[in-house]
Specification:
- With about 650 residues, the protein is of the alpha/beta class.
- The protein folds into 2 domains: about 350 residues, Arginase, Chain A, CATH 3.40.800.20; about 210 residues, Roll (Hypothetical upf0131 protein ytfp).
- The chain has an 8-stranded parallel sheet, with helices on both faces. Strands 12-17-11-20-19-18 form a 6-stranded mixed sheet. It has a two-stranded antiparallel sheet with strand order 1-2.
- A hairpin with a 3-residue loop joins β14 and β15.
- The radius of gyration is 26 Å and the shape is elongated.
- Bound molecules: N-{4-[(3-aminopropyl)amino]butyl}acetamide and zinc ion (ZN).
Amino acid sequence: MPEKPSESNGKVHRKVGLVYDETMCKHDTPDGEAHPERPDRIRVIWDNLQLAGVTQRCVVLGGTKAEDAHLQLVHTKDHVNLVKSSTNKKDYQSDRVASLVNSIYLNGSTSEAAYLAAGSVVEVAEKVAKGELDSGFAIVRPPGHHAEADEAMGFCFFNNVAVAASYLLDERPDLGVKKILVVDWDVHHGNGTQKMFWEDPRVLVFSVHRHEDGGFYPGGDDGSYNMVGEGPGEGFNINVPWEQGRCGDADYLAAWDHILIPVAKEFNPDIILLSAGFDAAIGDPLGGCRVTPYGYSVMLKKLMEFAQGKIVMALEGGYNLDSIAKSSLACVQVLLEDNPIQGSSEAIPFMSTWRVIQAVRKRLCAYWPSLADELPSKLTNQKTPTPIVLTSNSNSEAKDNAHELLDQMSKLNIENHQGDTKVSRSWRSDLSKVDVWYASFGSNMWKPRFLCYIQGGQVEGMTKPCVGSMDKSPPKGITWGTYPNRLFFGRESTNVWGKGGVAFTNPLTNPNDQTHMCLYRITLEQFNDVLFQENGLNVDFASPIFGLTALQLVEKNGSTPLEAALAPWYGNVVCLGREGDVPILTMTCTLSVIEKFASGEVPLSPPAKAYANTLIRGLVEGGIFSEEEAEAYIDNAASKPLYINGASRF
Ligand code: Q9C
Ligand code: ZN
């Protein structure tokens, strides 16, 4: 029996379930290596919901483990047993080659997390189908939509959403769910879900994804619009395959208005299961698209018109912590029927978007008459031309995405996507209100050099100038500190300094190590501009790489590896403590890069003279050392081998 919606302050609102279980954070890489599908993903989502005060207004559920019988509705017995038995393995690194090919990794907690992820989606789906909840969001990992009947892939082990759909249809006829709409807005094609319901007309699977003619993960033809299902399921599989990256709110909403929504009206589902990956979000290092939290909220709001708003969201991908936290909050606010977040999308779809939408409508109109009409040309003529993209000759995904992002950001102004400019303006004004101490241990210890990152320009020893920060106001304070981290020099050459190593500090502490650091009090906005420049990205990004959520996280955990694609060398922000209310942050390399330095895979290399002199000047002018002492300090750091044992991890 459906329960009455809860009431507070006389305002009726909907019962929204949230599943969060910290146990799912235990699934991690066996060797601690950085990976985009990382434990903090679900933590930041949860923390941000708490911070916004929405968790108290929801029904909070702990995780539930899936039953083998339910998993076997869509997976083979062998596959279920393989995932289950992975708990007892001794050596997880031995499967490295296989896992690299299939984009998965395992540790001793993977099985438990995978059972919880699937079971939790089943639990929310059951409660929504029963009417105990109006809707819900299962904040789970590992994700599910790539997992096939007999195969883990794409960071996925069990197909959480598919298990829940089959459970409702096959195990709970008493709940009266006969037709399920699966909407998959993760930036990757939901290949697993497509296969599992290929011949099943009870489940309409809709996936919108970056496809690029099969060049984007998971690749091949599976994600093409020609894949419409077979047998009784013919017409019940709809793919919207983007030809390019950089798609945003305008493109997604066009697919909603001209494909998904008319079809959903005809299909008239009893419940909607949403494969809610947030990797099409702006700033995502894997997706290269630009959907805003506002865009997600509108897409969800449009789905609320169906199945009496019975929507079960399950997290899939999404790898920019800031973006996934904000997008998730925007969605939960829609489920709660709060005043939706403000925003506007004045951007126009790409030319390729209309091409794809028209092709999909044509391919599927035999099954869905509402797709038959030709779209008015006054609509499809409004389009943004596909910009010329410089193609990278590297096939590494990280590099392509970094390139893609740079390209995307540098075109913002000429494309006149007003939505983007607004996003950019608002992150800057938010972060300009927060102060941090930036702790420098390399050339930035010399104030005139550091000021180049703020005011722009070039000092002695630099081979090229810096553009500086958008906000050029000088640091609000300067002080010095000594920290138990090891200073060392590595790499053979850099853009700014030419040949020779540059300074890094080990994020691991050891009481025997001492690094002197010069602290500058700057805004978090300026800190991001320093990060961009330190990593060779002197462009105006539409989103910060180190935002407020990341700041909270680094204060809690000590260290936050940034998206590897964005920050190849100084990609790790480390919190060294606080000075009064203000956190002390430094930037160095990630632990996996430390390991490469320690193993010799990337060379340690002493600093060139001009670079070393900059550090020495900083230490001398800062009153820390005499010139001789400063030279000895640098020599010592440059000549000792780097050990990583015996250190404590932040
Ligand atoms: N060149 C989800 O978002 N990328 N999975 C492999 C190989 C794998 C994404 C790249 C991306 C998997 C749930
Ligand atoms: Zn994805």
